[in-house]
Design a protein that fits this description.
single chain; alpha+beta; FAD/NAD(P)-binding domain; 3 domains; five-stranded antiparallel β-sheet; about 35% helix; globular; binds flavin-adenine dinucleotide
């Protein structure tokens, strides 16, 4: 089945006529969360906790708040496609997209932070960058989070009512504290796996520093580190508010103390980690905000309370004519495959709106 804009009725009709049962199956799961299904068939508390962390590790909420559609994508992708790692590091994904965009005649302007989306008679017509440059276009697409798009790039009085309602349903997830470590290869026991999740107490799964996620990319791609060394990336949820308003020395002290706690816990799976540490870079929620341009460094939107699956997640068009949103603040949410889907769904929606397709993919 092609996956294009779910806002395009002709595409939906065509898909329904071609694959009626698959479409009905997808529609059935749209308002459902993983926990609803799990609790219908499973009563073992340990197994339910395990399903919670299976969801939490990418949705940052437990199973009863995780939409079934996202889980279907993530679980299927993991098991049928396997875990994929881009050789050269994740930056390669962006590099390949740049190559494709330029090949298609596009231009990318780097270090051009947009500070304002320009409206004319309520219609989005352009953007203004931090250097004061103005760009006009027939359609404007924001890849910033909804809190940035509708809280900073547009003035308060320009924010549509439905966006205010969305913010009542969804809140910002926490950000992360990240440890980027260079370690001696001897730190890793033989047959070490690439990915680990460390959680000592189920009740602390969603707390700051409760769950620690670990990736060791050099096990798949040894060229990323000098011979005899590995890279360990360990990260754990942390709230921006715990890092805001600190003096530089308080900030550094907190960074060092948090890193020491994480390293001490990781010693359980990597004995000798502390003494084998060759390099350490610590990223905080402030780093996430600064380098990713995301309000409070958030990982993305999470429901404020249990919602009906993905029904409340907006598609790409917005209440402001000419303005579209894309990325993890749109259907179907966070994760690379989800945001890639929202990207080509948005491109399809715009192509139809500009009559660049025959209203059919
Ligand atoms: C530690 C960590 C681990 C993760 N691991 C995985 C994983 O293993 N698998 C997975 O699928 N997903 C993973 N994710 C999630 C995934 O990275 C995100 O869901 C995804 O990158 C979100 O894509 P996006 O395009 O919506 O936003 P972003 O990736 O944040 O892209 C938005 C872009 O817009 C730019 N921007 C923002 N504001 C402006 C502005 N005003 N002007 C100009 N440019 C602007 C930013 O610089 C950025 O380049 C992880 C995330 C984190 C933080």
């Amino acid at each position: 089945m092609d996956l294009l804009s779910l806002e395009e009725p002709r595409y939906l009709l065509r898909m329904f006529l071609q694959h009626p049962l698959s479409c009905l199956g997808l529609a059935r799961y749209l308002p459902i969360n993983v926990g609803d299904i799990a609790r219908r068939y499973i009563s073992d508390p340990e197994l339910l906790r395990f399903i919670d962390i299976e969801c939490y590790c990418w949705s940052v909420v437990p199973a009863n708040m995780t939409p079934m559609i996202n889980a279907g994508m993530v679980f299927s992708d993991r098991h049928y496609g396997g875990v994929n790692y881009p050789k050269g590091g994740v930056g390669q994904i962006a590099q390949k997209l740049v190559e494709g965009l330029e090949k298609a005649g596009g231009t990318i302007i780097y270090k051009a932070r947009v500070t304002k989306i320009l409206l004319e008679k309520g219609y989005a017509v352009g953007v203004k960058t931090i250097s004061g440059d103005i760009y006009h276009a027939r359609r404007i697409v924001s890849n910033a989070t909804r809190w940035d798009t509708f809280g900073k790039l547009l003035a308060q009085e320009e924010i549509p009512t439905n966006e205010k309602r969305w913010q009542q349903r969804y809140q910002k997830s926490p950000s992360f504290l990240s440890l980027h470590m260079g370690v001696k290869a001897s730190v890793l026991p033989s047959q070490t796996e690439c990915h680990h999740i460390l959680l000592e107490d189920w009740n602390k799964m969603a707390d700051s520093e409760g769950t620690i996620f670990v990736s060791i990319p050099t096990l798949l791609d040894p060229d990323l580190a000098p011979h005899g060394y590995h890279i360990i990336h360990a990260f754990t949820p942390h709230w921006f508010s715990d890092w805001n308003g600190l003096s530089p020395s308080e900030y550094n002290t907190r960074k060092e103390a948090s890193a020491a706690r994480i390293i001490q816990r990781l010693e359980k799976i990597f004995p000798g980690l502390d003494s084998g540490l060759d390099y350490l870079e610590i990223g905080t929620p402030r780093s996430h905000r600064r380098f990713l341009g995301r309000e409070d460094g958030t990982y993305g939107p999470i429901p404020r309370r249990k919602l009906l699956g993905l029904l409340g997640m907006p598609f790409n068009s917005t209440a402001i004519p000419g303005l579209y949103c894309v990325g993890d603040s749109t259907f179907p949410g966070q994760g690379l495959n989800a945001v890639a889907f929202s990207g080509f769904a948005c491109a399809h929606r715009i192509a139809v709106d500009l009559s660049l397709t025959k209203r059919q993919p």
